[in-house]
């Protein structure tokens, strides 16, 4: 899809996945620092994992379905109700003017 723009209010698969890049990268950085503390691999040796994870996330986002996508610029605003000046006048019927006083 050319010119795709993510919409936070949209619930399609691609829009939902677009918000995962930041959290996944933070988790990856934390895991790499944890690995650096408990193994012989330092962060300067394992940082390419960040590129692999970023590429994987971009691939997963771009291959996701856009079925049901709502573009943020294509959402139409609700139309306002017609004003009293443009509305057709309501004429009361003769039945409403003289209600029966007695029911037989």
Report a brief summary of the structure.
With 104 residues, this protein is mainly alpha-helical.
User: Could you list the spans in which at least 5 consecutive residues all have pLDDT below 50?
Assistant: none
How big is the Rg? 30 Å
Individual helix count: 5
Q: What form results from the Cα inertia axes?
A: rod-shaped
Structural class given helices, strands, pairing?
Answer: mainly alpha
**What's the total count of β strands?**
0
Average of per-residue pLDDT values: 78
Q: Main sheet?
A: none
Instruction: Tell me the distance between the termini.
Output: 72 Å
Strand and helix order: HHHHH
Model description:
There is one protein chain. With 104 residues, this protein is mainly alpha-helical. It contains five helices and no strands. Helix 2 (21-38) packs antiparallel against helix 4 (48-62).
């Amino acid at each position: 899809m050319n010119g795709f723009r993510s919409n936070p209010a949209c619930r399609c698969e691609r829009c939902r996945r677009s918000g995962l890049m930041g959290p996944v990268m933070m988790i990856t950085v934390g895991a790499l620092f944890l690995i650096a503390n408990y193994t012989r691999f330092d962060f300067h040796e394992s940082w390419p994992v960040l590129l692999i994870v970023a590429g994987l996330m971009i691939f997963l986002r771009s291959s996701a379905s856009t079925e049901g996508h709502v573009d943020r610029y294509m959402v139409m605003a609700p139309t306002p109700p017609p004003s009293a000046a443009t509305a057709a006048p309501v004429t009361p019927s003769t039945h409403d003017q003289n209600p029966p006083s007695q029911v037989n």
